[in-house]
Amino acid sequence: MSRVHAERASMVRESYPYYLANRAVAANRDLAVEDKFTGRVATHVALAGPAVLEAAIAAAAAAAGPMRQLPAFRRQAVLEHCVRRFRERADELAEALCVEAGKPIKDSRVEVARLIDTFRVAAEESVRIYGEVLPLDIGPRSAGYIGMWKRVPIGPCAFITPFNFPLNLAAHKIAPALAVGCPFVLKPASATPVGALLIGEVLAETDLPAGAFSILPCRSADVGALVSDDRLALLSFTGSPAVGWDLKARAGRKRVLLELGGNAAVIVDRDSDLDDAAARIVFGAFYQSGQSCISVQRILAHREIYAALRDKLVAAVGKLKIGDPKDEQTFIGPMISDEAAERVESWVASAAGRGATVLCGGSRAGRMIAPTLLENVPADEPVNCQEVFGPVAILAPFDDFDAALAEVNRTRFGLQAGVFTRDLYKAQRAWDVLEVGGVIIGDVPSWRVDHMPYGGVKESGLGREGIRFSMEEMTEIRLMAIRTPPEKGEMQSAK
Predict the structure, then answer these.
(1) Which of 95, 259, 381, 387 is catalytic?
(2) How many distinct structural domains can be found in the chain?
(3) Pick the catalytic residue: 293, 381, 387, 473?
(4) Amino acid 488: pLDDT
């Protein structure tokens, strides 16, 4: 290991506390966090139990009033402080992410940049929470009335985040909550809790009201209170569809936001620049070892260019470097766990056993899955109709653009889709027809900028993230109607 790598590795500490009601609590060292590449324990994290969760919820409920009264400039100052500190600690954040998630160091730096962008945009939006004046005199009955509405914080929030983007997916819940004035309790993924705790460490430097935030790694079995407790007004969950919809069913009357799984497809029409499309597809399918809900999983190419695109993809995939995520040249790092890698391997084998052609990859070494391209995959194979969440993509030809759109819509998922075409009318038709939350023209579905509305339909979710849109979800409209009594003369004439 080079000196630079050694210095970065030293940034990961031996242990981290959790944050209860704004305060660091080194209660224990019960949660071991692995270096996902080596499989060795990299650090330990304090683990919260049910009593701690109860204390956090009570503190968030008590903080709802003070947070609601916090003026916009103070909320903005907290977010701006976070932006400054994240920039100062960028190397530490990236190294922790590289170790706990196995994310290649180049990609880890990109996620830190996105964390900073997310808080920066939230700081800007925190002073732009607008309402409207609403004329009410639409008939004789409402003459003399005028209305005004504003947005107010919904109240204490519960957040549950997954392992694949430990910094930015936490940021997409935390930053909007702070921007509008909602206290929160966050449970990060047990496999990757360090990123969220580093965010908590920075938040603890601010003057937020007591109880404004708690960040608590805990066992899944202990998370029930975050779902069912009526003192929490909103639950925002990012993770698997099976878990997400179950949580919604148990959430009672609270508002629920779900960012769930996908089976993202990209269409490549015959007028596309194949070199450009191939480069973007390789990125979209294999970035972060495919562990993204908008990773390219299905590639639909017009039959006239199918063979040429297939050859370009196979050649490009063969050049991807697999290995240690701390290496600056690594593109494919480890899967999050042995179990995840074994599942992906079994799905590829199942497809191959039913006649699918393995164009490249298909092998596993521990947690490392070689980037894999398949064709001739039966429609009901898991790697085709479910979410693979690994470095695997399948190819299929199409003859008719409308048939390709129908194929994209075939699955029960609907997060994002990509369409490579130079035909404006086809782009418009894709936007009209595709049953997804976002249609990306000229690029892969894996593309996202952090202030755009992001979310899915069908089994892919409920509601939207993207700072301003999350802020709307975390607020509710409060109306004031004002009656101006009629003048005496008007009253007499009315009689």
Answers:
(1) 259
(2) 2
(3) 293
(4) 76
